Amino acid sequence: MIEFSAKTREKELQSSSGQAFDVLVIGGGIIGAGVANTLSQAGISVILVEMGDFASGTSSGSSKLIHGGLRYLAQGRFRLTRNLLKERNYLMRKTDLVKPINFDILIGPGMFGRFEIRIGLMLYRILGGGKHSAYTKNNGIFPDSVKGYYTYKDCITDDALLTVSNIVSAHMNGAVCLNYVKYTGSSVINDENVAKLKDMVSGNYITIRYRVLVNCAGAWIDDVLGHEKIGNFRLSKGIHLIYPREVYRRESAAVVKSKVDGRQMFIIPRGQVVIVGTTDDFVDSPDNWNITESERDYVIKSLSFISAGISREKIIGEYSGIRTLLGSGNNPGKMSRDFSVLRKNNVFTVIGGKVTDYRRVSRKTAILVSKYLKKKRVSGALPRIDYKPDLNDRVSSAIKYECAIFPDDVVKRRSSVYYFDPESTNLVNETALKLLNPISE
Ligand SMILES: Cc1cc2nc3c(=O)[nH]c(=O)nc-3n(C[C@H](O)[C@H](O)[C@H](O)COP(=O)(O)OP(=O)(O)OC[C@H]3O[C@@H](n4cnc5c(N)ncnc54)[C@H](O)[C@@H]3O)c2cc1C
Asked: Which ligand 1 atom minimizes the distance to the CA of 321?
């Protein structure tokens, strides 16, 4: 295994200074990670910079589903659902990081209708979703207002680990991938594009040269471009609340209509916890990640009819994420979850793109970039995940092979550690802290 750590980061930061790369990728979320992975596997030289830790943006704040989106079907977005299901099926086959889970979709007055869901699930199956169960009457496992449910399969993942695994794979294929390095702007010097990068750990700057810039900065795509705004997107925040497992004992996840406004929401059991959410509200700033009382209230009022434990008192954790939605709609729930790649001169900007769809987004972007560079063609099999994380020794692997710099990186990337054992004081053990301390000084 190739070392990818704080030590190698320092070396690569120094050796990149003044160097020329084919492509500069901005953003170490799932989209930037996938793009860097695809390009490096196609033999194109890449440097990726991430201003925080890898996956510290929305790519660790999603619902962690790899799914076709039954909701998108109801909106008539058949092609998107078909594409997402193809991706889901591919990832389920090819990586241990994506696992199937049953979803109960609840039927009853003020909830989903039986007929509507049967048709929806039939279509889902035709588009690649797989067989669903027969209608099951509620025999006391749900509150009386739920008349029954259908069960179908979709998948869950660890979004942060999927992102980091793509970053490590890109690194294994020769890409320079730097966390805690912020892109601060570009200039043209002697006909070459020169980017100024700030090392957020030391505060020092380096410059590098590049031919193409790929802007995968998620909610910050406009900020990266400075005064040249893109305009054709809106930002929407979603929050999740975390509860102990006892609040919802079923093995299957539940798809539920909100009691407040009828939106589709999820209750997702994960190990010793349950994740519930999410919200979908426009925000004006990419930095507006804080969770408000009214957002918590909304989730609780929407879902507490399923379990009284979904209450203020029992919350043990929470997180948020910001979606970049394509277009200019005025209802975030109705805006497309598809993506677009825009080009202006040698700058490509990715708008949108779900975790489920990251391979398709990455490949499309990489194909456009490679054509522009007049380089090798990007094949349909890319990106591959070459890195196989050791799921039994997460702390050591994060430090040695996944370039965790600070103790918090290990914990946050593996946020499930918080959720799986919220009482534990042994989140990052003594050995790990010893290893990490010299690095974080
Ligand atoms: C609440 C919620 C739930 C979701 N649930 C699902 C789901 O279940 N399944 C699914 O498939 N999708 C889901 N999505 C969508 C999915 O999570 C996002 O579309 C995806 O994570 C976006 O990835 P990204 O790489 O574009 O953005 P990000 O992960 O935000 O990455 C962008 C990165 O760019 C970095 N950056 C910004 N500016 C700079 C700079 N100047 N220099 C260096 N770095 C910079 C940021 O720090 C950030 O890490 C959900 C989204 C939300 C909000």
From this structure: 53
The CA 6 to ligand 1 mean position distance, Å, reads 23
Long-range contacts from 312-315, C-beta under 8 angstroms, 24+ separation: 314/243, 314/244, 314/247, 315/241, 315/242, 315/243
Among 156, 183, 204, the domain boundary falls at 156
Per-residue pLDDT, 309: 96
Token pair of 433 as six digits: 């802290």
pLDDT score of 416: 52
* Global pTM value: 0.94
Within 13 A of 27's CA, how many CA atoms are on the CB side?
27
Pick the atom of ligand 1 nearest to 236's CA.
53
**Residue 334 vs residues 81, 217, 288, 312, 325: alpha-carbon distances, Å:** 14, 23, 21, 29, 10
Expressed as residue numbers, the domain containing 238 is 233-326
Residues of the chain with pLDDT under 50: 417, 420-441
- Residue-wise pLDDT for 107-126, tens only, equals 999 999 999 999 999 999 99
Secondary structure class of 135 (helix, strand, coil): coil
Q: Where does ligand 1 bind, in terms of residues with CB under 6 Å? A: 26-32, 49-52, 56-59, 62-65, 182-183, 216-220, 224, 238, 278, 321-323, 353-356
> In degrees, to the nearest 5, what angle opens at C-alpha 435 toward C-alphas 430 and 436?
95
Closest Cα to atom 9 of ligand 1: 65
Q: pLDDT tens, 13-39?
A: 999 999 999 999 999 999 999 999 999
Here the CATH number for the domain that contains residue 20 is: 3.50.50.60
Whether residue 166 sits in one domain with residue 53 = yes
